[in-house]
Amino acid sequence: MNFTKNARSYRGRVLTTRPEQSVFKTHLEEDGVVVVGADGTILFVGPYSNNVPHPVVDFHPHVITPGFADVHVHYPQTRVMGRATGPLLDWLSNTVFPEESKFVDSAYADKVANEFYAHLIASGTTCAGIYATSSKSATQTAIQHALNVGIAAQVGLVLMDRGAPDALVVSREQALSDLAQLLNFTAGNERVKLAVTPRFALSCTPELLREAGHFAAQNKLLVQTHLSENVEECRATLAAFPGCADYLSVYESAGLVHDQALFAHAIHLSDSEVERMARAGAKVAHCPDSNLFLGSGTMLLRALLSAGIKVGLGSDVAAGRTFDMRRIAASAYDVALLQKAPVSLEELFALLTFGGAQVLGFGDTRGALTAGRMGDFLVIDVPEYTRQKSDILGQLLFASDTCKVIRTYLSGKKPNLP
Ligand code: GUN
Ligand code: ZN
Hints:
The protein has 2 domains: 8-66 and 367-409, Urease, subunit C, domain 1 (Roll); 68-359, TIM Barrel (Alpha-Beta Barrel).
C-alpha cells in the first residue's frame, strides 16, 4: 500500500454499506481498518494488515460505522422537546412559535446552537437537514456553528409570510433578500449549504412559494418543507389554496416538486401523490417518533420505498423526543412491523447512514465508508461477544443506551465543540 504522508489508520470491526455495489446490503470487516488522509478523505477501507500507515488507532472490538444522518431537525426547538401540546397546529401555536420568536436575540440563538450541535454529535449525527427560524441572524448562527463544528449540513431560513405571529412573519421581499445574503455567506462551501425552506404551505402565500421555487432552481439548492403531516393541516391547506386538488399540487404549482426536494412526514398521501412524487424524484424525510408524539399518523415506509422514492430518517426535534437517530430507526422499525410491511435491519442501517446523506445531497461524498468519501465515522461500543453481522446490526440499531457512541469523526477530525 502506498499512502500519502500524514494518513491515519483506525482499526476495528468495520460495518458499512457500499452504495456503489448495493444500497441496502451491509458489509462487516471483522478485523478492518479505515485509512483517512490529512484532508479527511478516506483512502482505504478493508482488512487490517501491518502495512497500513501509522499511527494506528486501535478501537477493536468496537464497531466503526458511517456517521448517522438526521434529515429533518429544527434547531430552535432544542429547548422545547417533550412538550405534549399537540396535535400539530395547536403545538405550533402553543409551543413552537413562542419559542422560535426568541431567536431574534442572537445571544440566545448562539447559546441554543451550542446545545443543539452538542446533542447531534453526542448521538452520532454527522450529517443533518436543519431548519432554523425566519430570522436571518438566527439562520446565520446555525450555519456558522455547523461550519465550526465540522458537520455536513443543509441549513434553512424558514420562510413564513403568513399564518404565524407577527414576531415570526417576514415579508416575501425581505425573505428573498435574506436568502440572497445567506447564499453569499455559504458560497462555495461543499459541506454546509443553504436549503430553501418554506415552513409549510400554510405559512406561505402562493407568491412566496413560487419565488422560493425559482430561487432554489436558479441556485441549484435543496428544497425542504413539510407535507401532509396532519389531517387538519391537510384540510386547512386545501382551503387556503382553493385551486389545488391535493396538498402536493400546492407545491407542484410553485415548482417545488423535483429531485432536489425533500418532504417531511408525507403521511396522508393519495396514490396519485405518491406516484407524482416518485416520477419527480422527490425525496422523503421519515419522522416516525414525531408522527407518534403529535398523533399525526403513520407513514407507509414500505409503500414509498416500493414506489422508488428515496427516504432518509428525521428526528424532527422537537416534535420528535430524541436526537438519537437510532431510536428514530427503532420507531421506524416498530411502525412498519405494525403495518405488516416490515423493514429489515440492513434497510434501516442504510436509511440511517447512506440513505440520509443521499436525500440531503451528500450521497456522492458521505454516508458510507468507501475510498474517496469523506471520513465521517463513529466508533460504537458493541460488546465483543456479539459476533454475527445480524446481531451486531440489532445491537447497534436498537440498543443505543448500552452500545454508546465512543467517538465521532467529521472529515477525519474530532468535532470542534466549544
Ligand atoms: N409543520 C410546520 N412547522 C412544523 C414544525 O416545526 N414541526 C413539525 N413537525 N411540523 C411542522
Ligand atoms: Zn419538522
